[in-house]
Specification:
By secondary structure, the protein is mainly α. It contains two helices and two strands. The model has no long low-confidence stretch (mean pLDDT 77).
């Protein structure tokens, strides 16, 4: 199954059918990743209090943090930019959690 969808498409229109087609899999993450650029400004906590602290973490420092495996998937996508939108599975263990 392909990994992309039209730029103007609502992500759930593509992700939900993709997830449904993989129901037989033992464990499957389906994610939508967006590439963004930082233009500046000062970091601040979210007004509703959902995030207690806002920090920029340099990408090389991420490997020393406890994180979701989806973080490593996003980093692999940014690093390799595969045409089909897929990267190999990320091993889970140690600091990398499901």
């Amino acid at each position: 199954m392909g990994g992309g969808f039209r730029l103007a498409a609502y992500p759930a229109c593509r992700v939900i059918p993709a997830a449904e087609s993989r129901r037989g899999s033992e464990h499957q993450n389906v994610g939508v990743f967006y590439q963004v650029g930082i233009t500046g400004d000062t970091l601040r906590p979210e007004p509703n209090g959902e995030a207690s602290e806002s920090v920029w973490t340099p990408i090389p420092d991420v490997v020393a943090l406890r994180r979701s495996s989806l973080v490593d998937v996003g980093l692999a996508l940014a690093r390799t930019r595969p045409a089909d939108g897929h990267v190999p599975p990320v091993p889970v263990g140690g600091l990398v959690q499901h």
